[in-house]
Amino acid sequence: MLKQVILYNIAKKLELREPNQQAFQALLNHYYQTKSQNSEKLSECILSVATGVGKTYIMAAILNYLVETEKITNFLIVAPGKIIREKTINNFSLNKPSSLADKLTIKPPHIIDIKNFHTTKTTDKNSVKLFIFTVQSLTQAKGKTARKTSNYDEVLGKSLREHLSKLDDLVIFADEHHLYYGEKFSEAIRELKPKILIGLTGTPHEKTPTKEIIFEYPL
Fold first, then answer.
1. What kind of fold does domain 4-217 have according to CATH?
2. Are 19 and 53 in contact (CB under 8 A)?
């Protein structure tokens, strides 16, 4: 059941604009509808919002709400490239000019990326973790071209990809979702078997089923 008071407090603290609030609520409505159906099938949905509307604010609001109400502790933002990955890391890190971390109503999540996932923090069940990776770094490869995320890690006792795929509360945000319909990129994300896959894009891919687009806000 949607908790309106918590939703309101998050929207107020983040100073969400109206389209952001609408996207935020649309996603939560979809989440609870899917949850009530007790389906084991991957729930994938798209928030189609134009560039400049504030996708990062929407992701921050959703993360905040799901931590506070559903006790979810594992989130992954998939970025289309290194520049957006670094920008996203800054957006969720304290003491950065563009940071939203101090605008959350919860303790900011622990940021995990390609440089620091080899630590016990990755498996800490008591902390909220926000994994931020490029889609390229998550693709599977073997032999000399194997990605770091596909290699066995001594601290994790498995590869990072395997670790993520075994989490029962993984929520994935796919930034620029329309880019991830190629076979390798699609597998990189969907084979992680998230609880829900939330795509954000201003231009949904032509293969996207209409029913998956739960919110649209074009310029």
1. Rossmann fold (3.40.50)
2. yes
